[in-house]
Amino acid sequence: MINRKLKRWLLIGVSEIVLSLTLIAIAPTFLNSKKPEFGFLIWITVPTVLSGSSIYALGKFAAARKARNIFVQAFPEYSYLGVSEFLELSPAHVASQINLLRSAKETSEVQEFNISLFEILEQTKHEKI
Hints:
- The chain has 129 residues and is mostly helical.
- The chain has one domain.
- 74% of the residues lie in helices and 0% in strands.
- The two termini are 31 Å apart.
């Protein structure tokens, strides 16, 4: 199942591709006009923007994968979680919360109410470290 954050990313990516293709399609019109610099600007800008977006997305995905690995190493019972669940969590945040989550795992309230440690981790993502 694709979560909301991943759906949003995919929608933005598809929108960028459609906009880029549209701009590239109209660039020859400018190249053959009295203002060819607009056409050249489009040809230079579109690949630059797409490259920047791709690098950012790959960086976020790599960070999410690292955060997932840190969490799953500490709590192997959560190995069913995918990388997409960790897109909003940084590896540093996950690593800093591991001891807290280990302590929470031992408490009777967490065991009694069957509270997910991943839910606790998600709740702490907005706290300052």
